[in-house]
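Quick question, first post here. What does this chain look like in 3D?
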Amino acid sequence: MTTLLALDTATEACSVALLHDGQVLSHYEVIPRLHAQRLLPMIQTLLSEAGIVLSAVDALAFGRGPGAFTGVRIAVGVVQGLAFALERPVLPVSTLATIAQRAYREQGAEQVAVAIDARMDEVYWGCYRAQQGEMQLAGSEAVLPPEQVSLPRGSEGQWFGAGTGWGYGARLAVQPSASDATLLPHALDLLTLAGFAWQRGEAVEADQAQPIYLRDNVATPKAPR
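> Answer (accepted):
Ran it through. Tokens below.
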């Protein structure tokens, strides 16, 4: 059976999850600015609880963003380091999709509009629909002012609002049936999405574990060789 390790540090939350022998274990903490210190110990604790060593892992999944610049970089750095050392593939998963998957798991929401506070008076935005238990992107992910968000064309039925961006309230151009601005990504849901991606053969090599910021001016250009 497949053994997958998932980790997420893209927001204030730091979490890890493990699928092994059909069983799932996870650890979740909201610890702003402490991700770098806590992530590796959390992984080691999880492996110890499962009674396995890191080399038993078949692939590593991670929250690829969008999210906090430093947080996303921590996840990418750790996953690349482990994947290169173990010679294992990686599964990049959208932070927005992970939040949508959590809303599906906890609230039963089948249509979720995710907004993460992106600072600079903008939100990271993505809309997702449940397809056989997997939250799939409808349209595209974007970073834009709250007043410019929108649902996919031809949308019907109720939409649930999830993520810190819903703290903008009435400024958001979409009014959901209900919302939760406290919802953060959880590696448990990242693991679920990674499982679907793994079954479809979407794992990539470690050097392709790249962050997605959506905001172009965040990344530092590589120096010419």
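The first strand starts at residue 4 and ends at 8.
The helical segments are 35-50, 69-86, 95-107, 187-199.
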